[in-house]
Amino acid sequence: MAGYRLIIFGLLLLLSFDALCESELSKPRWSELKPQQQKILEPLAQSWDAMDSGRKKKWLGVAKRYPKMTPQEQQRIQSQMQSWNSLTSEQRNQVRERYKKMEQLPAQKRKEIKQRWYEYEQLPGKT
């Protein structure tokens, strides 16, 4: 009987530790962000609490640099956040995989792709 209690206690301890780690990894919650951070990161508000801590850290870094960006850079970041937030989880994973593949290309090939993308973005009707 004491053995079962010890096992149950151990399982409860393990579960509570996992819950604690999970809640710590998901910090900060949207409600814990400063008002300026919330304003900058507003397009991500609905998905923020579900993000992993690494992604949150990335976006918090963007929010920190945001005031020093040009208005064009700020507009581009806002547009990227809105676009990213509109993707499904599966689509985001596909984008991440494409990015990883692109990073493995030779530098010259990456440069060519970026140049073609820049030219596409400059077409009439694109902003």
Main structural class: mainly alpha
Straight-line N-to-C gap: 70 Å
Low-confidence stretches: 9-14, 16-23
| Number of extended strands | 0
SSE pattern: HHHHHHH
The rough form would be described as: globular
Q: How many H/I helices?
A: 7
Q: How much strand content do the residues show?
A: under 5%
Helix content estimate: over 70%
Residue-averaged pLDDT, rounded?
A: 82
Query: How many whole angstroms does the radius of gyration measure?
Result: 21 Å
Query: Biggest sheet: strands, sense, closure?
Result: none
Please tell me about this protein's structure.
With 127 residues, this protein is mainly α. Helices cover 73% and strands 0% of the residues. The protein has seven helices and no strands. The N and C termini lie far apart (70 Å). Mean pLDDT is 82; it is low at 9-14 and 16-23.
Notable characteristics:
127 residues, globular, 7 helices, mainly alpha, single chain
